[in-house]
Design goal:
The protein has about 140 residues and is α+β, with helices and mostly antiparallel strands. Helix content is about 40%, strand content about 15%.
Length: about 140
């Protein structure tokens, strides 16, 4: 089964600009986008091979369309997306050292907290969300 996290940010940016993957070219594109600011490279749920650029506010204001680790943790706790709240929840989760937020076989909008060991032992069943800063 295809795992969207198999597509790196560098590969996605080359796909977006319709150029063959090249790490140097990818890093140049990413540098230019970061300089522009307020843009995120992301993909719509279920379409990881169709990367797009959106304004950061659009990405975080529409968590059902664009699911990141930050929006997933808010969905898990059934709270409205708030970057401060998301960061706090994720920091608490990360401090446990044993839990991570994931989804099962395309069920993007049903985040689960599971032991990392279980997630990594079942990589064809459970998938990690990408971090907002890694999109």
């Amino acid at each position: 089964m295809f795992n969207p996290t198999d597509i790196s940010k560098e590969q996605a940016i080359c796909m977006f600009f319709c150029v063959p993957y090249d790490p140097t070219v990818a890093n140049d594109f990413l540098f230019r986008i970061e300089r522009f600011g307020r843009l995120e490279l992301c993909y719509e749920v279920g379409k990881p091979n169709e990367p797009m650029l959106l304004g950061k506010q659009k990405v975080v204001s529409n968590p059902i369309t664009v699911i990141t680790r930050e929006t997933a943790i808010c969905l898990f706790f059934c709270v409205a997306y708030d970057p401060v709240v998301a960061k706090d929840y994720l920091n608490c989760m990360d401090q446990t050292g044993i839990l991570d937020i994931c989804y099962q076989n395309g069920e993007y909008i049903k985040p689960m907290l599971l032991p990392k060991q279980k997630i990594f032992a079942n990589r064809t069943k459970y998938f990690l969300y990408q971090r907002l800063d890694s999109l």
